[in-house]
Amino acid sequence: MDWASTSVRRRFALFSAAVLAYNIPVILWGAYVRISFSGDGCGANWPFCNGQVIPRHMAAPMAIEFTHRAMTSLDTFATLAMVVWAFLSFPKRHAVRRYSVLSLVFLFIEALLGAGLVLFRLVARDQSAGRAWYLSGHLANTLLLLAALAATAWLAYTNSGRLRWTSASRGMLVALAITLVVSITGAIAALGDTLFPASSLASGMQQDFSSATGALLRLRMVHPAIAILGAAYLLWVAVRALKSDHDAGHLRTAARRVIAIVLFQIAVGVVNVALLAPVWMQLVHLFIADVVWILVVLLVLESARAGESIPLRHAIRADSHQTPAQTIPHLQE
Questions:
Q1: 105-114: pLDDT as tens digits
Q2: How many separate domains does the chain show?
Q3: Residues 157 and 22 in one domain
Q4: Structural domain span for residue 285
Q5: Could you tell me if residue 328 is inside a domain?
Q6: Are 174 and 127 in a shared domain?
Q7: In this structure, is the dihedral angle defined by the CA atoms of residues 64, 70, 76 and 81, taken in order, positive or negative?
Q8: Of the four, 46, 64, 89, 240, which is 20 to 30 A from 275 by CA?
């Protein structure tokens, strides 16, 4: 058969969405490992904790780090099950298969990057520039993992085996790139907040602008400016999608969600700075950032399904010479 049955497709979509949702607490707990300086809780050992599969008499740092490793192990089994299910239920070359495999690949890379943090001792109170660069690569892979999982669930749910990636729709991928950059600068800022906590907003600003300030704090002060510019671009993209003449209700719904979550994230970011980035607020800020990323991914996918993107008028003009038969989505088998 060419397509999975409706019931199987819906069950698979729910399962893959659950795997996506489960990755959020895994990511948040990983951030808590960093914030609580527990990254070396299991010593310079991986995948076992201090050489033990299940260590005994765990102190708080070890328990925190071991919990994160256990959560990641469960995530691996769930993602493997998703890939097997995709290959059993969807035909060859189907996009669901492709993105489920990508999810597993990014998850394995994620595990290797996590191992590197431990083995290279880029944890706890390490203040090296290498840690910031490594953390940036780690976060980029994390977001790619979330994107692949979101695409897997979305493709199964919408029954979209084909997407129309016009030259204009590929332009919307800029929104993803900008969101990625904002997220990376946010991760570096969070690391700076953890390693160099400020006693007040004024002292924090003095730290950031001091000539004796290290690289991490100098990068920390860049994040708010980049975040505001990135938010402005995302809002512009979403508003343009709302003004589309194309009859795509799902595209407009995705755009409204992006507008709402971006505005909310701006408010959360302001509160985070005002409260001097307490642990709970950093986790809330990260949670919303992950949701922003997922909703931007869904907006890009909806744009490809509609066959339009930003700028929409250019896409319409580019396709105006085609016949109705030629405008049928033809990519992403």
A1: 999 999 999 9
A2: 2
A3: yes
A4: 163-317
A5: no
A6: no
A7: negative
A8: 64
The reported pTM is: 0.88
- Which one-letter DSSP state was computed for residue 52? B
pLDDT per position as a tens digit, 164-179: 766 656 668 899 999 9
Nearest to 22 by CA among 98, 77, 83: 77
Residues 119 and 154 in one domain: yes
Per-residue burial over 95-109, b = 16 or more CB atoms within 10 Å of its CB, e = otherwise: bbbbbbbbbbbbbeb
Q: Measure the CA–CA gap between 303 and 241, rounded to whole angstroms.
A: 8
Lowest mean pLDDT among 2-6, 23-27, 312-316: 312-316
CB of 169 closer than 8 Å to CB of 303: yes
Which single residue is written with the structure tokens 């256990």? 70
Q: Is residue 54 part of a domain?
A: yes
Give the Cα separation of 122 and 131 in Å (integer).
5
Dihedral of CA 155/161/164/170: which sign?
A: positive
Task: Return the ∠ at Cα 77 (arms to 55 and 1), rounded to 5°.
Answer: 175
Q: Which residues pair with 49 in a beta bridge?
A: 52
Structural domain contains residue 93: yes
> Does residue 179 fall inside a structural domain?
yes
Residue scoring higher pLDDT (288 or 308): 288
